[in-house]
Amino acid sequence: MNDMTCVRCQVTVSPQLIDFLPDGAVCRSCLIKAESDPVAIERGERALLRSIGGRQLTVGGFMLAIGIAVLALGAAGSSSIMLLPTGLLIGGVFEIVRGINNLSR
Question: Could you tell me if 49 and 105 are in contact, meaning their C-beta atoms sit under 8 angstroms apart?
Fold first, then answer.
């Protein structure tokens, strides 16, 4: 059986004791140390908020695009249904603002 090396402490352990993170393969003891470190917890929370913020920007832009398209089609066809595109426009702007807020943290 092949052993794996932790990228943080350089200890060789069995593959069952390794977790794969974005920065590489990390052993359980390093994970326990990292989870009890307040700086690492804060860094992880910031990374999560940035990830959520990016998704919110994407969803907000998509909502704005759909809302503008539906509003343009409704205006071109003299339709009286304007509630759906208005809701998409307001929701899209709201998601974009929340995404920017999360990205700035």
Answer: yes
Q: How would DSSP label each residue in 46-104?
A: HHHHHHHHHHHHHHHHHHHHHHHHHHHHHHHTT-S--HHHHHHHHHHHHHHHHHHHHHT
- d(C-alpha 40, C-alpha 95), whole Å: 28
Contact 65, 89 (CB under 8 A): no
Cβ-in-10-Å burial (0-12, 13-18, 19+) of 39 comes to: exposed
pTM of full prediction above 0.70? no
Q: Of how many residues is the chain composed?
A: 105
- What is the distance between the alpha carbons of residues 34 and 14, in angstroms, rounded to a whole number? 20
Nearest CA among 28, 29, 38, 52 for reference residue 104: 52
pLDDT band at 65; cut points 50, 70, 90:
very high
Per-residue pLDDT for 1 more than 60? no
Taking the CB of residue 104, how many other CB atoms lie within 10 A of it? 9
